[in-house]
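Field guide to reading this record: the first block holds the primary sequence, the second block holds the structure written as discrete tokens, and the final block holds curator observations. Each block starts with its own label. This record concerns Glycosyltransferase involved in cell wall bisynthesis, catalogued under organism Butyrivibrio fibrisolvens.

BLOCK 1 — SEQUENCE
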Amino acid sequence: MPELSVCIISKNEEENIEKCLRAITPLQSEIILTDTGSSDRTVEIAKKYTKNIFHFDWCDDFSAARNYCAARASNDWILFIDCDEYLVLADILRLNEIINEHPLEIGMVNRISPYPGDETQQSRHDFVARLYNRNLYTYKGTIQETIEPINEELVPMDYDSPKYFEIPLTFYHAGFETINNRRKKAERDLTMLQDILRTEGPSAYTYYQLGKCYVAMKDPALAAHYYYSGISLNPNPVHTYVHDMVESYGFCLLELKQYDKALSLEQYYDDFSSRADYVYLMGLIYMNNARYDEAIAQFKKAIGIKNYSIEGVNTYAPRYNIGLIYESLGKPDEAISFYKQCGSYAPAIKRIAALS
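BLOCK 2 — STRUCTURE
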């Protein structure tokens, strides 16, 4: 396997940096840390794990910082992680094999993030691009930066997108553990994204990121506005962010009780029905439009679909909603049967108690 360099950008991360660096020691890789002006013990702590520490004068450009950091590495294969991400699972042998199998593509790690659910703490699973050969790729974008080809003629492309492969590394993302953390990040990003929109013009990806900011700031109306603006530009569904944008738009419409409008998302069924999140969403949309047979069919289809992001959309959540439908139709025995399939899901347990 080509040697890896793990690259990290930091600023005032003394609460996270030691756990982050300790967790990646099994990789036995070079660590390059680029600090952008910490006033706490971040650099002091990092020195226990690497001598490769550099300073970068912050210029409101995340890609510039990442590319500066990658340029300091001894190896061409770069794995970027954030200070609030902790490696929790790694198959080193398989990692070696899979990089050799995909020498011209971008590697994606599995990232698990806390996700606020109704009465429960859920998790969100996303594959995010983090591993690349710096001779072929570079970071672009001042905020919500992406890995892009230096020369598209040198790498395999899927329409207008580079090709990706999944690598056997799983990280836990602690940065979103609290609503306050989510809001702070959204407020930080919002001004920069609005500046990008003014200077660079409409972009589906920028609209998507603006929508995410307003979700974090608990403003579903503005989030829906920006998601719809992005969808209206007809971005290529091969991009994974497009799936999340469409699904997030649907959940915003449900929160706003715009149930009839949400039915417009049926048009994406052929592109997205391999994702449990989308199929589950369509079940909720049909359910809220009193199209119960169609809702039950979608919920049953969602159960067991392996491709998902939000925990529960392919297990207890569709079963719980089938139970709600049967209960509303005056069929308590059928409802209890599905509630019992929800395991320890608290809302289902409450409904069983209420019906017993």
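BLOCK 3 — OBSERVATIONS
The domain at 4-176 is CATH 3.90.550.10 (Spore Coat Polysaccharide Biosynthesis Protein SpsA; Chain A).
The chain has two domains: 4-176, 179-272.
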